[in-house]
Amino acid sequence: GQQLNQSPQSMFIQEGEDVSMNCTSSSIFNTWLWYKQDPGEGPVLLIALYKAGELTSNGRLTAQFGITRKDSFLNISASIPSDVGIYFCAGQLAFYGGSQGNLIFGKGTKLSVKP
Amino acid sequence: NAGVTQTPKFRVLKTGQSMTLLCAQDMNHEYMYWYRQDPGMGLRLIHYSVGEGTTAKGEVPDGYNVSRLKKQNFLLGLESAAPSQTSVYFCASSKPGLDTQYFGPGTRLTVL
Asked: Taking CB atoms and an 8 Å limit, are A101 and B96 in contact across chains?
């Protein structure tokens, strides 16, 4: 099936540092979404992107929809301990055989913050 | 609003047993989804529904069945559980035409 390459797989950062992660694909996407999952919980939507080049912020989080429509990145500024968790990117392909709404998920970036 | 809820939260089955996972949403969403999440993997779509009475296969449908008899509920069934179905199962819902999916808290299933 289609693949999203999400990197890095994991990262340890010092509190207060900025964080960057990204997702890439060989396919073109119509939509990029970024979710965060806390242990024992379901993913929670952080940011949704619908247009190529779109740059959207949600508090300390900023995400961009790549111009080529094949990638997206998420930045977290001034990280704090509660940023710990797994971050997933998800996208909807521009051309697909299934019904509208199906998403493809990256494997996640596990973020750990040193207090 | 409770959003998306799932029952049960945990379950242990023996190989060959059957069970049904229930997902309920109170956001009046048309679309509902069942995913499984395995260690080191992203979410993989099992089945989905674009409306009451309709269901369709996702990426990994084998060994599962679903039903959407009411708009607010989406049931996932395992007729004969296998150890390979040990996983965390997430339900999600969304409005039609929009890609933003809202997830439930998950059901952790272990098949011995």
From this structure: yes
Which of A23, A100, A109 should one mutate to test binding to chain B, selecting the residue with the greatest count of B CBs within 10 A?
A100
Choosing among B99, B100, B108, which should be mutated to test the A contact, i.e. which has the most A CBs within 10 A? B99
Low-confidence ranges of chain B (pLDDT < 70): 1, 97-99
Residue in this structure with the two tokens 């990029």, named with its chain if needed: A32
Report pLDDT digits (tens) over A47-104: 999 999 999 999 999 999 999 999 999 999 999 999 999 999 998 876 554 445 578 8
User: Nearest by CB to A42, which of B41, B45, B104?
Assistant: B104
Taking the Cβ of residue A97 and every Cβ of chain B, the question of whether any pair is shorter than 8 Å is answered with no
Q: Which amino acid is at A59?
A: G
Q: Which pLDDT score, from 0 to 100, does residue B41 have? A: 79
Per-position DSSP letters for A37-99, written without gaps between them: E-TTS--EEEEEE-STT-EEEETTEEEEE-TTSSEEEEEE-S--GGG-EEEEEEEEESS-SS-
